[in-house]
Fold each of these.
Amino acid sequence: MSQSKNDIKPPRLATRLFNYYCKNELADSILGDLQEQFYREAGKGHYLKARRRYWANVFTFINRHTLRRTHKQPNHNHTAMFKNYTLITLRNLRKKPVFSFINIFGLAIGLASCMIIYFYIQRELSFDRFHSNSENIYRVANTYDRSGNKFNWVRTPPALAPGIRDNFPGIGKVTRLRFTDEHVYALGDKVFSIENGFFADSLYLEMFDFKLKSGNPETALDAPNSIVLTEGLAERFFGNDNPLGKLIRFDNEKSLKVTGVFERLPTNSHIDFELLISFSTYVVPEGYLADLNSWAWGGFQTYIEISPNIDPTDLQQNITELYQNNYTRTDTKVAAVLQPLHNLYLEYPDYSNVGHSIKVGDKSTIYMLTGIATLVLLVAGLNFMNLSTAISLNRGKEIGMRKVMGAVRGKIKNQFLIESVIIALISMSIALVLVVLAEPVFNDLLKIELPKSLMDYLVVIPIFGLASIAIGILGGLYPSLMLSSFSPIKALKGNLKTGNSGTVVRKGLTIFQFVVSVGLMMASLLVVRQTDFMKSQSLGFDQENIVVLKVVGTDIGDDYASLKNTLIQNPYVSMVSTTSHTFSGSSSSGPARLQGAPASESHHLNYYQTGYDFLKVMDLELKEGRFFSKEYPNDPEEGLILNETAVKEMGLEEPLGQHITFHNRDRVVIGVIKDFNYVSLHSPISAMGIVMPFTIQDLILVKASGGVVSDVISSLEDDWNSVLEGVPFDAKFLDEGIQAMYEQETRLSKLVGIFSTLAVVLACLGLYGLVAFSVQARLKEVGIRKVLGGSVNSMLILLSRQFFTLILVANLIAVPLVYFLGDNWLSNFSYRTEMGLFLFLLPMTVLILIALITLSHQVIKAALTNPVKVLRND
Amino acid sequence: MRNSIGEFEEIVLLVVAAQHDKAYGLSVTDAIEEQLKRSVKLSSVHTSLYRLEEKGLVESRIGETSTLRGGRKKRHFIITMAGKKALISAQEARNQLWQQIPKTVLDINKA
């Protein structure tokens, strides 16, 4: 190893390490010995050995004689300085109340938005995690592949659960659920019609941790005619009495014994129910084409809890095989899918036939909100930084004094960092208060559940405390570095001017803020427009003034005729019909094929069962043929009406008179109707048929004509009670159900609106700070210009020009960005609005106007200042 | 004995006394290695010196520097009166033991 003489030096890192741990009074002499030894050895040519020895010595010298004693360090009087920093911080805040308010409040708003979004996302991600065995529980869903058309269905046939249980003993627990639909539950004179319930297998309560306040979870659902109630429902029925063992009448046909009462149920469960009835109570309603041994009736939720040693992938394969062996239709390939319980709420948006009372979340909202939260926090943080810098600018004298009195640069840096952390922490406390105050708004208006108890809010303090400290440090870094760098003489003169680099940094940050705020404004406008567009879409039918009466708990059968007669005579009613579904997404479906064609050529047809005047009540447009009519006695048995899409899909050139086998019954196409949106506008219209009722009709459509809403409803109720005494009256407007399908978008547009408004407000606060900053720095220039005869107007232009350049640049960046992202988002919709010029121009104008107002205040003040004032001191 | 010293400490103290006024960490280490043919670590010599200083057997002062040491000063160790006494008493104790050995036992040539 040849080293030139100059190269031979002891390893620097080792020396550093030694100096780090060794006492000062010993360090020099020891290090001297070490180096003497090193040079001697290295001089003999054993460079590597010397090096190794040096390193080894550095470590072996660590002992009680050499180690620094921290407690013997000289006292730097940290507490006293810290106290002083706090005092000065508060004094400075008080000195400029407006600025301080803007600064603290701006950050508080940003932090509060983040907290709200944090709570929201936290809740969305917590779904179904409270069950103690939740990672071993799966929902068994199924997919159908019918000649290339794939359907992902959540609900499975009733025979699947018993099939799994019998064929794979020892895998764990299997249970199934069936939605109860609306029924009448009565106890004496307390009669409620309740929809939110499930028939549940006896194992259900052993599998899921829905805790019982009273009753035994292992046996509560064993016997037929058992019912378990939620706390709230039990209170409605029994008040303070003990409900256990009491009987509740079900649809006036049987009595259910209360075998348990739930504790307050967690709301973050994907299943949402008010009552559970033992599955053995369930009877397949009359008119249904299948029974509980069916392998083709997708109407039941199946859940399994498997032992930890079982591989879910293998099991899924085995269940699929079992399913295929029992599924009789040869044209369809079925498969079972095991869906982990944790994922049910968010991960399966592409599964349909989810069933009622099952909550499905929206992952894209979570992503969007996370993005917004990040942006808002960024804007708030940048603001904080800009404003802190601006505020500190005329503290030159203080900094100068501190330096003269012996403060080194590091101390000044620390002072400003501590100051900004203190302000950030104050902001965080205000943010917490804001969130608590805003809780009702978010709970009621936006259906965002924020925690109710104070404890839940305090939980975020560590997280957001740390975040605030980080924001404080990051936000304070720039001012602290900048302000501490001035020489005391300059600083004492009181004018702290920064070079060009600082201006570039601040300009860049401002552009970024404006890109974010104008972008968010454009985005929220887009969301609002898309939502409005969907709501205003012509759905192909009349959704106004239609009341849906629901018959619950009884089969009105022949009473329908007399009810209809009574209703028709009501002056508020113009027409009456029946339907099986109400344009809110759900429909029945069945296979349809040309008569004589093989089963493999079946088409999937959604269908409604409706009464005679349905076409007129809903104001649907008939394209060909006719609607059901009493003049044709065969209509109820074999009449079939198709929509245009169905005609196209089945390839019918002459649809009228075509014989079609639908649901194993031969029917004749008597009419074709124009496509109308019977599902939400998220998806395109699919093939649909209309037949006359073959199961019990429970939805009556009443077309109202004029009148005050409350009058109409109460007169309908009178009519109802005169015919169907004792049957609960249940009326809803059709459009309520339709609006509910767009709840997600409505909520999103409100949310985006709120947070983007906040972002704009924050950006403008930032602009205010920046303007103040640069105007202050140019006061002398303005003074000289005025002395030399510059007009106020020219000053205005001089001072505001650069900000408009910034805004322009920000817009140039934001527009393509929003265009690209917006286009992406719109592609999720089948019916989408256009991104017009308006979408971009409006936010720009708004931003420029707000900026103008913000600017003018400062600029005019500067332009009108008497030049003597600013120039006198020089 | 209050100021009892260990065997290694005794050696270090002897070297310090021998290199009167010129002893410092590295020189003591070198002397032990060369004269006693015994490999010692620089750090253990230092530790030993500090311990002797704690016991009041040596004193230290900051001495001269040299470029060979990267410009760092030496810490010289000088034996104190207590150190000298300790050495002498250690010596005496040994002598006492020596004298108790019967002459024949140590007569190597005879054996």
Amino acid sequence: MAQQNSYLPTVPRGPGRRHHLEKFTMTTTTPLRRTGRKAVALATSLLLGTAAAIAAAPGASADDGGGTLRMPIAGIGIDSMNPFLAYFAGSLDVFAGIYPALNTVEQDGTAKPYLADSWTTSEDKLTWTFKIHKGLKWSDGKPITAEDAAWTFNLIMTNSTAATANGSLVANFASVTAPDDTTLVVRTKQPQATMLAVSVPASGIPIVPKHIWESHVTDLKNYKNDSFPVVGYGPWTLTDYKPEQYAKYDANKDFVLGAPKYDHMIQQAFKNTDAAVAALRSGQLDYVSGLNPVQYKALKGQAGIKAYETVGNRWSGIEVNGGARTRDGKQIGTGHPALGDVKVREALARAIDRATIVKKVRDNLAKVGASYLPPSLPQYAWEPSGSDKFDYDPAKANSVLDEAGYKKGSDGIRVDPKSKRKLEFRLGIHSDDDADAKVSTYLAGWFKEIGVKADIQAMSSSKLNADLAKGDWDILMDSWSTGPDPTYLLGIQTCSALPDSKGEGGSTDSFFCDKNYDDLFLRQQSAFDEKERAGLLQQMQAILYKANENIMIYNANGLAAYRTDRVDGILTGKADSTGAYPPQPSLAQYLNAAPANASSSSGGNSGTVIGASAAAVVVLAAGGVFLMRRRSSSDDRE
Amino acid sequence: MADTIDVTGAVAAKAAGAPGAGRRRGSAFPRYLATKLVAAAISFLATLVIGFVLFSLMPADPVQSITRGRPTSDAQMAQLRRQLGLDQSVPERFFHFVTDTVTGHLGTSWEFQQPVSSLIGDRLWPTLLLMGTATVISVALGLWLGVRSGWRQGSWLDRIATGASLTLWSVPTFWLGMILLITFSVGIGPLPGFLPAGGMSDPAITGGLDHVLDVAEHLVLPCLTMVLVVFAQYVAVMRSSIIDELGSPYLLTARAKGLRDDDVRRRHAVPNALLPSVTMIFMHLGTVLGGAITVETVYSWPGLGQLSYQALKVPDLPLLQGTFIVFSASVILMNLVADVIYRFLDPRVRAQ
């Protein structure tokens, strides 16, 4: 849902558009004259000051040589540096670099050691024993032990503030203990197949040093974690952070998974992708991601820059309100009754020409969508086969509706035989999302061809979410991404995600609720065999596909670029590869990145800078002197 | 000159917001100040109520927005609702809001889970720096151009200044910002870029003077964008005020005394024509804190405008209310200052 690269609307420029030209006169002139002259002097000196600053400031990051990796802050930024509270991708990305996790997830989805060297499960699958790597030290020199991990998990399990961000990940934990410094024992209430996704970098629980955090438990809610350098462990140590500006790191050359190849890293906040692209081109950044197709194509041919695609970890599509209800079955909201008919939803799915959208909206930098889980999780991938496919076929869509008794009225819009209401649906889109606007226009046109009217309503994300939760919607455009473990994404389609009897709570995404789906969801949670689990997830996706309450349109490829003259070893991946788990950059990307050997740098800039600025200063100074001289001479003459 | 006062006195009094009865002598300054202070306090309270009502009416579920996309259980969401005080009734929330505000507490942001006052504090200085510098420069530039354009109405300077300023005034801010950003940071054609593309400083540069110069370098583009867009209003107002003065008899008198044209303008015409501009400058100073969302976004400037926009998305009510309080307080304060300053600048306000 969160869109990063959207333009903001232009705001009115304060109270000035209409000028009030009342007539004022003054009887005395002396006081104002002084003020006026002082103001002029002040302004002149400021102008000169600024110009001098330009002249003296060093050229754009001229001297960082090979020592500093310059990255943008991920996503929409950092909400908090407290790992128990933070939700934003930018924060999780920071934690991945400065706090350890039990294990990592490789690009192919397999778990690999990090703090834990190895792990075993008991016969009954309820006890997990992790062997913690010996001899690792927090950045302040104190040893990292199993007790740190046990303390972190226990705090989240017992303290509701500590559970703010990651409480659901330990919901199935019965107990966590550390019998000795290198052994961590986790007992779960039910067998949990996703254990190796609980404490992974970025999307899992970061483990914090007990000796530092113990004293902050009482004021955890207000603790900003801002005494630098932050005591942690990872490839980096956070040495400075300014909200909305930057985070600075020193490399940890003893890092257990290999030393970073840079000595320092800087992450800078860019509030719009166009500016980040400009910063990449001017050398202020070494890497950008989250590009849109236009930015990507523009960077594609640039010398010294490599623009590349990664496999999509996100679906974009529409959600259809097939009957909003509470957990106990009470109807809520104002959804159109006809959408409860699976035939109507099938017709909608068949009316969408996904290939055209991929081509026109995403410039072919996307995959036609079908399955609920994105292509970045190839191990769980599922595709509809032959006759089950709801391909673009307006004729078929029309005949489905005809057969189901939805007759066209004189205006070409079909009428629901039961409720007697026209098939006129609200189509909610994100007002700050460019792609939503384009896609919805296509959809409205295609729906019209099958006798369905779509009324496009652009809203803020918060309004869309609020309407969704109350069931006050017909069709919504939506988009979701996922980390390495898709449990949450699948969980928002279960019956237990519906709101409670008062219509509150719940995290349902489309009011989908299906008994078979829920059974499969429960089974996959304790399916320890990866193959078996994949099979269950595929069956679940098939159920979702048939219901057409979540109609996938496309999976956008990740688009990123980096400077080949500055940095080497960036994990580029491919759009059609066997999967690259994109949130991984926080750990693997920054570890792999190495200074490029190319000696040619964009050093030519600084000469021009100095020249141009010096000229500006001279002109301004000369102007100032001239004005002052003229003024003083005329004063004299008087 | 007495006849001019008669014509415009009523308007001036109204604009200055002087209390109705006009017979009292000007010596009662404390009394004048007290009425103004009371009026300011009342306006502030009124904006508090309006702010609360408006934000409470916003249709949204903040907990949904905050947790969306993160694995969150029902229990966590319920806990979050309690923590945020969303389980309280509206009157209860209003009571807490007013008592907190009056005692100087701005609450805790829902989105950032930090005290609102520290979030605002972090961003106050960048906003003041950007908007303050831009306002000073655009006032100076605008007034200077306005005076000269008005004085020689129809001259080439007048035509260029008026045309250019109005063109820039009509240009969308974000568009101009992007164009300047691409031109000066990336470079166009053979011209290399030489200014930073965003942010407030280069984190790699530390230490006293280098840091100051680095911030100044980062300030150039956002400041230039702001100035180019807003200076037109000062040009327009100043120019028309000067034109209004052109035919005045006191200018003839001044010339008859043998003053040079420049001095007639500087010493007689400008001071008399300055009041509308002063009004506008103070109106503007009040809104300086509000920042400029578009400029801050284009140049990734870590300011208050940016913060309130982020708060609006959730919506993060404590943060929104906090920024709202700061913005309205600064507008009210600046109006108060303007009222007081008028008394010294304009004898007619004093005379009432």
